[in-house]
Amino acid sequence: MLAVIVLEILKRIPLIFSTIIKHFKHGPPQPSWDLKVHLIVSIAGTLGAPPYKKFTIEVAQSSIPIFTYKIPSDLKLYETSIPHEYRINAQAYIEKIVKPYNIVIDPIWKTPRNDEIKGELIMDKDWNEENDWEKEKIVLYLHGGAYSTGNSKIAHDFCCKLSRTSGARIFTISYRLAPQNPFPSALCDSLAAYLYLMNPPKDSGFKAYKPEQIVFGGDSAGGGLVVSLGLAIRDLGLPLPAGIVSWSPWTDLTHSMPSFNDTAVDETDFLPLLPGFKFARNTNSDAYREFRTRSGNIIRNIQKNPEIKIIGDESLKRIGNQSVSFYVVNEGLGIPYVSPMLAESLGGLPPLLIIAGNVERLRDEAVYLAYRASNPEKYRLPKYEVDFDNSRFKSPSKQVILEIYDEMFHNFHYSHLEAAKVTVRRASEFISTVIQEALQANPTSNKFETYKITYQGEVQNFDESSIEHVLTWDKAGVFPGV
Asked: Membrane-spanning regions, if any (predicted)?
């Protein structure tokens, strides 16, 4: 495995040289980028292009992470497993909210191939259960990877920084991956982790957390998943966490927003213009063959039952006879727990901190998500509504903060840049504040704040005119090119 990856890196030596030449001859894609940043984005940008077509799903899933991150000496990591009973409890809840969409959902999600959910707790090395529990705070962090790759370990470096700065413990889990475990497997496992934190078994090594002591965090697909989890908990009437922090969230699997399809972003972000982010495209794979068979059966069943209304734009039915995503078939891309940006209403959620880079492919999803949460009535999507006028969640979410980082690419918070340090600090402040307010039952009036963070980390007022085209976009939820 490692030999294959090393070989692929060696094949990128010509790209490294061409990027160096381009950097000094024509300048970097963004004014403040040094050569190191330019190289990182250029090399990472080959992820969705050949020769990665050689990678099978199994190889892609097992190759991340390549190296194990060493936990700093001032922190410690405790490995844990969430017992199967929590997944069973979560499944009963999830079945209630996904029932209207059953025709587009692969029932295989109900039969997990492993009994436990693996996870890790990252904390101060001096942490112990005898601490003042009323002051305890924890972040349930969900990793990215397009729902088909990644695990809890890829976020260790960032989670260590977040734990050190915020003083919170960080709980990361390895939720089930698609296509072997399609929607709503990841959502089910994430809910199981939340239930586990609020009611742990006796041998867990910690006491039960109140919902007010918990914040959800995540990036990319995980950034979308934490919003979906918040929606699911809201809709189920379960206790909401103190807040949600979402970095570079993937919240629109229909790829309908302008920034996703902007070819100028090819130079500034490493995420490829690749529907579904199906990075592993080698068809010589048991997982791929099973995926094609199962998704094909679902699509044919939908076509045989045209009278059944599928939520979303008609374009989702006309994409084609092959699923563009490993996570769910095309007709399911508009499900609110798949694409939370397209939910009927994003009101009634706990405080939200939405973070994105200004030159990343998913920028507009983050922007539109924040504005829709701040004003559900104004930013309605009729094609994705069931009964908005009678919705319980028409009121704006309690607090929404949108932060756009200038010249930053997807998941910039993992980098060495000043912007990454700033976002850790600001997210840590948000985590502490919302938990304190929740524990004190200190209601605040609904508020919406927007900020621009410069490359040097300076916080400025956000110029709404720069995203006016996003707020007036009339193709949200319409699959491009259909």
From this structure: none
Q: Which CATH superfamily is domain 75-257+337-471 in?
A: Alpha/Beta hydrolase fold, catalytic domain (3.40.50.1820)
User: Which whole number is the average pLDDT over 342-361?
Assistant: 97
- pLDDT recorded at residue 7: 62
Q: What is the mean pLDDT of residues 249-269?
A: 95
Q: How far is CA 145 from the centre of its chain?
A: 8
Q: Return the closest-CA partner of residue 58 out of 333, 297, 253, 326.
A: 326
Whole-number Å distance between alpha carbons of 343 and 340: 5
Peptide bond into 100 cis (omega under 30): no
As a three-state string, the secondary structure of 50-71 is CCHHHCCHHHHHHCCCCCCCCC
Closest CA to 460 of 451, 468, 469: 451
In this model, does residue 343 exceed pLDDT 80? yes
Question: In whole numbers, what is the pLDDT of the chain averaged over residues?
Answer: 91
- Spatial CB neighbours of 433, under 8 Å, sequence gap ≥ 6: none
- The pTM for the full model equals 0.94
Please tell me the distance from the alpha carbon of residue 304 to that of residue 416, in angstroms, as a whole number.
52
Cα distances (angstroms) measured from residue 244 to each of 154, 340, 355, 373: 20, 13, 11, 12
* Domain chopping of the chain, boundaries: 2-66, 75-257+337-471
Calpha distance 71→77 (Å, rounded): 7
The whole-number pLDDT of residue 37 equals 85
Q: What percent of the chain has pLDDT over 70?
A: 94
